[in-house]
Design the sequence.
């Protein structure tokens, strides 16, 4: 009898059925956009498992609601949902420019505190458009807009030096750490936004609208304080070592030569008032639009120097931008804190000191490869 | 199975039991990025209580600690056992509260505490109803899983390890974290003496070395991977770090499986602690303490804020009174009594 009772208790308690939910009971959100207007947050969630009734229906649904807090806005969304909102699969959070300028701490707090949030997503700021709109643009190459944005960031980060690694954890830890401020990528919409939301967009060979990654947003703590140009973005990423493949357009005759980096290393030497950055990169020629003798070591040397100058030019632009906005996005303050904690702690406001920090950059570029050709076509046909 | 392997596994779990959410939080709060230095210092000082417990285990090694108390304190031994039983029960309560809190905050936020408590207590009651050999064997089996999860976690986080995050060294006083660490992660091993002491002598030292190494590496990873700032704001940084294991590589979302290593730690300690209480109070109905545990579990702390304050600034200084001073008195008396009997 005793054993039977124990067995029954086990059956009742350990079946795994307590509080269970079917997958169909959940509305799975894969993207979140947060706009800020008139003191209220407008949260939009992109759901990817809506019921598909007919062919003309899209698989994705974007639902928005406003609220005084992020949580309230999400709860307001659930008022119109026949399913429970599930945010564990979020892959991207898009903030509007207004929201980023206002400060994104409330959103970060919610996303860190909520047990359902997996914190494995990208943060991005929508430039010149509502954050919500970026989640509604359909493209033929990806099933969901959130998937499109996430894959775009991942691939571009690997293939170009323009994009930064703005993962959630990376961003939050930069806000929390001493002597460093975060940066994010931005996204813009190109084309006709309204047309871009239609299902036919996924079948068109020419997209009416698409989302495109743009320049970097510079923050001071949790607030956006400025945008970079593309050159400044490259310079900033070069200093951060956030460069997998870098490409440089070097003037060559009346045209350009494209050089890409194949390996890239940054080493910082930190002193109290001076930072020396040593950059060592190897590269290869990707495209030559002029006639130069690539068999001549002097030519190679000349273009190595030009590449170094170009890199320094971008880097100087990046440094100038950060200094003009008084935001240490490179984390030199943090490096000084780690090396000289007492000195750093004696400084009241690092961001005021940062513009006067001497940053000495040395670039060494080796043009190691020329691709599949040894010589340029122009030089060969001379 | 070699018996001492099972007891080594049990020792490993006991040493680690109060780390997640209790001593790790105290360490990080008090000593920030110097927490790993605190662990090193605590490890060295910790040999003193370990040696004390080893010495106790060595005298009349066919008896367990409660029988030794009866032997050395024939008159008021039962009162001493009650005091020790209550102290151990309080520690079990802390750990059990921590376990249910972890489960509610990270896994089952909509499930009532009582349901979680009952689900956890049933296997604990079942385990303590079994013989010592079965308990040790269970410990060994769980240890294999824990070791696998630990290795997977470390391997999956290796590429995210940033030495820079450990700097600056000695900005905080690492000595501040030593007492909490010893109180929560070393002294509770006293409960292992509930088993006949001839089996556990080797286990004390082997378990100590293995568990301390594992906790030292976990702490290093927490600080070096998350960074001290992020580690400080999380309630369970050990759990959050697991979210990054193999992120974007082989697979992801392994944290729920890998976190069971922490659940096993508390499960084993709670089982042994409750076994200690049952025997200290000489209670034959093994479900009485578990029921009290479930009832107190919902009311022990009004909220997490109060709990964190008490766990960091109060309890670490009370625990050594019961788990170091009293054992020291027991050892002195036991040694005297033993030498009297021999002579």
Sequence:
């Amino acid at each position: 009898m005793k054993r039977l009772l124990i067995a029954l208790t086990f059956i009742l308690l350990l079946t795994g059925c307590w509080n269970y939910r079917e997958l169909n009971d959940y509305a799975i959100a894969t993207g979140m956009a947060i706009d800020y207007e008139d003191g209220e947050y407008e949260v939009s969630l992109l759901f990817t498992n809506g019921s598909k009734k007919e062919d003309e229906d899209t698989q994705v649904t974007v639902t928005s609601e406003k609220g005084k807090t992020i949580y309230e806005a999400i709860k307001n969304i659930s008022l119109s949902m026949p399913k429970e909102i599930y945010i564990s699969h979020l892959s991207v959070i898009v903030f509007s420019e207004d929201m980023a300028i206002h400060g994104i701490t409330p959103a970060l707090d919610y996303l860190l505190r909520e047990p359902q949030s997996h914190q494995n997503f990208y943060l991005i700021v929508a430039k010149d458009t509502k954050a919500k709109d970026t989640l509604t643009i359909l493209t033929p190459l990806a099933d969901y807009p959130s998937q499109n944005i996430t894959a775009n960031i991942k691939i571009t980060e690997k293939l170009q030096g323009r994009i930064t690694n703005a993962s959630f954890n990376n961003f939050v830890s930069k806000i929390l750490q001493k002597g460093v401020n975060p940066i994010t990528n931005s996204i813009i919409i190109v084309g006709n936004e309204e047309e871009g939301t239609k299902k036919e967009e996924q079948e068109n060979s020419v997209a009416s609208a698409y989302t495109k990654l743009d320049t970097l947003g510079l923050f001071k703590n949790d607030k956006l304080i400025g945008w970079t140009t593309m050159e400044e973005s490259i310079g900033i990423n070069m200093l951060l070592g956030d460069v997998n493949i870098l490409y440089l357009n070097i003037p060559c005759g009346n045209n350009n030569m494209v050089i890409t980096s194949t390996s890239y290393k940054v080493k910082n030497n930190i002193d109290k008032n001076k930072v020396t950055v040593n950059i060592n990169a190897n590269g290869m020629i990707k495209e030559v639009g002029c006639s130069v003798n690539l068999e001549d070591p002097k030519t190679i040397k000349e273009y190595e120097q030009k590449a170094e100058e170009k890199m320094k030019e971008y880097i100087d632009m990046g440094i100038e931008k950060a200094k003009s906005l008084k935001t240490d996005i490179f984390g030199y303050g943090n490096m000084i804190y780690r090396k000289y904690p007492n000195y750093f702690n004696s400084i009241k406001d690092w961001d005021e000191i940062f513009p006067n920090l001497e940053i000495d950059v040395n670039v060494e570029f080796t043009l190691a490869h020329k691709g599949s050709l040894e010589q340029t076509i122009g030089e060969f046909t001379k | 199975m070699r018996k001492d392997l099972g007891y080594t596994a049990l020792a490993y779990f006991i040493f680690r039991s109060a780390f997640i959410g209790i001593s790790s939080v105290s360490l990080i709060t008090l000593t920030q990025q110097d927490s790993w230095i605190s662990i090193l210092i605590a490890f060295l000082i910790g040999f003193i209580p370990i040696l004390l417990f080893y010495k106790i285990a060595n005298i009349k090694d066919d008896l367990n600690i409660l029988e030794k108390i009866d032997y050395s304190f024939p008159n008021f031994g039962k009162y001493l056992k009650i005091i020790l039983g209550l102290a151990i029960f309080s520690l079990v309560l802390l750990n059990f509260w921590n376990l249910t809190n972890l489960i509610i905050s990270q896994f089952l936020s909509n499930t009532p505490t009582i349901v979680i408590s009952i689900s956890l207590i049933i296997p604990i009651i079942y385990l303590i109803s079994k013989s010592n050999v079965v308990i040790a064997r269970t410990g060994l089996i769980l240890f294999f899983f824990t070791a696998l999860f630990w290795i997977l976690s470390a391997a999956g986080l290796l590429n995210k390890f940033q030495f820079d995050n450990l700097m600056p060294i000695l900005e905080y006083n690492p000595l501040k974290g030593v007492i909490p660490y010893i109180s929560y992660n070393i002294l509770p091993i006293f409960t292992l003496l509930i088993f006949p002491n001839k089996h556990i002598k080797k286990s004390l030292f082997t378990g100590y070395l293995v568990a301390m190494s594992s906790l030292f590496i976990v702490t290093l990873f927490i600080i070096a991977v998350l960074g001290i700032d992020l580690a400080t704001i999380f309630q369970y940084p050990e759990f959050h770090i697991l979210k990054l294991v193999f992120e974007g590589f082989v697979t992801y979302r392994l944290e729920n499986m890998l976190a069971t290593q922490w659940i096993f730690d508390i499960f084993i300690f709670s089982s042994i602690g409750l076994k200690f209480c049952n025997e200290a109070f000489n209670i034959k109905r093994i479900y009485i303490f578990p029921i009290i545990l479930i009832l107190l579990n919902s009311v022990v702390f009004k909220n997490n804020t109060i709990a964190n304050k008490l766990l960091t600034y109060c309890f670490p200084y009370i625990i050594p009174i019961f788990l170091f001073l009293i054992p020291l008195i027991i050892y002195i008396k036991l040694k005297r009594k033993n030498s009297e009997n021999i002579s």
